[in-house]
Write a structure and sequence with these properties.
A: 7 helices; B: mainly alpha
């Protein structure tokens, strides 16, 4: 039952992604790439890239993208519904409790411990993206198999972001254009 | 406040608009929600809005969706929640549906595939910059426990490929214990 599988996968993504956007990435990767093989690592990276260029949360974008690919528009609807269901329930309950009690020390304590873990998992997801970019999908890491033009583009992008505080969307666009130019000039 | 129907319509239109034009993640959209509902409509007080944003950020799920839920709930109960969520989802759903239909065509074009490949490196850089910033914030916090959690979670995720859900649950439990111990110390 593919609809049920999609639904349950995205319920998990919705339920366990704390901290928004980037934090959802490792979970989505685990569900749609590692566990079910609905997307290849390359398609997943494309999806992240597309999500960065379009409005809307990564999780919703992924639900739509994966749902359509696997089971058409009904699949997309089911996956999206799964993705937002935990939010609807949990946030409504917390909002209700908050409006009544307005004190959330315990929640703050949990958050303080989740935050570093979230950063670590984002880092881990970032490494997967870079390995896929630098060494292709087989991910055999070798000096000869390295895509050096992408390594250079990565470094340039990083400097523009860190040192010159460029807008991330502009940097990503530039990275794409640089690769296109390199491909045209190089061959 | 205005009549309920009018309020719902306003919630729908403004969240639809915000969702369609907010690039750059959940943190941006909650700021814009504050501008709209606190500064423009005066439906919510500033301080209360901050708490609602904290709820949206701390609960699991996409921040934009959570923001829509708290806002809808606060303004108009369950009807508000459904209205705001529907409006938030429509723009990304439509846009990604269109893109995914053209994806194969998209991908087989030389120009697009080169652009996408280069942008992968760009995305990697964006993620690296985000990690750097957030990681620095945690290191500056000078909490040994937070540093240890970060290092441990990274090794678990990256080297041992531990399921991320498990990592989150374990770290959440550590947080519960931490706040219990902390609370007891404060009482003494």
């Amino acid at each position: 039952m593919i609809y049920l599988e999609l639904f349950l996968s995205f319920v998990q993504i919705g339920l366990f992604s704390f901290g928004g956007g980037y934090a959802a990435m490792p979970l989505i990767q685990r569900q749609v790439v590692d566990a079910h093989g609905w997307l290849s690592m390359r398609e997943f990276t494309d999806l992240i890239t597309i999500s960065q260029m379009t409005p809307g949360p990564v999780a919703i974008n992924s639900a739509t993208f994966v749902g359509i690919k696997i089971a058409g528009v009904p699949g997309a609807l089911v996956a999206t519904a799964g993705c937002i269901l935990p939010s609807c329930i949990i946030v409504t309950v917390i909002a209700r409790l908050y409006l009544r009690y307005r004190s959330m020390n315990m929640l703050q304590g949990v958050l303080n411990s989740l935050r570093p873990a979230v950063v670590a998992m984002i880092a881990s997801a970032g490494i997967s993206v870079l390995v896929s970019a630098f060494w292709g999908n087989d991910a055999v890491i070798s000096l000869a198999g390295t895509n050096w033009s992408l390594v250079c583009i990565f470094l340039v992008s990083l400097i523009l972001l860190q040192k010159f505080k460029w807008n991330p969307i502009v940097v990503m666009m530039l990275a794409g254009v640089l690769k296109l130019l390199a491909a045209v000039i190089g061959g | 406040m205005e009549s309920r129907k009018k309020v719902l319509l306003k919630i729908f239109l403004s969240t639809l608009y915000l969702s369609a034009f907010t690039f750059g993640g959940g943190y941006v959209i909650v700021t814009l929600m504050k501008k709209k509902f606190v500064d423009e409509y005066h439906w919510i007080q500033e301080e209360e809005m901050l708490d609602l944003v904290a709820i949206a950020q701390s609960a699991p799920g996409a921040i934009a969706v959570n923001g829509a839920v708290v806002l809808g709930y606060k303004l108009s109960g369950m009807a508000g929640v459904l209205t705001a969520i529907t409006a938030t989802i429509i723009p990304p759903f439509v846009i990604i549906s269109l893109i995914s239909v053209c994806y194969d065509l998209f991908r087989s074009s030389f120009i697009v595939s080169q652009l996408l490949e280069g942008m992968q490196a760009g995305v990697g850089a964006v993620i690296a910059a985000v990690v750097w910033e957030m990681g620095a914030g945690i290191v500056h916090g000078k909490s040994v426990l937070s540093g240890a959690i970060m290092a441990g979670a990274f090794i678990a995720a990256c080297v041992f490929q531990v399921n991320v859900v498990l990592i989150i649950i374990v770290c959440g439990l550590i947080g519960v214990i931490r706040s219990l111990v902390h609370g007891r110390r404060e009482k003494r």
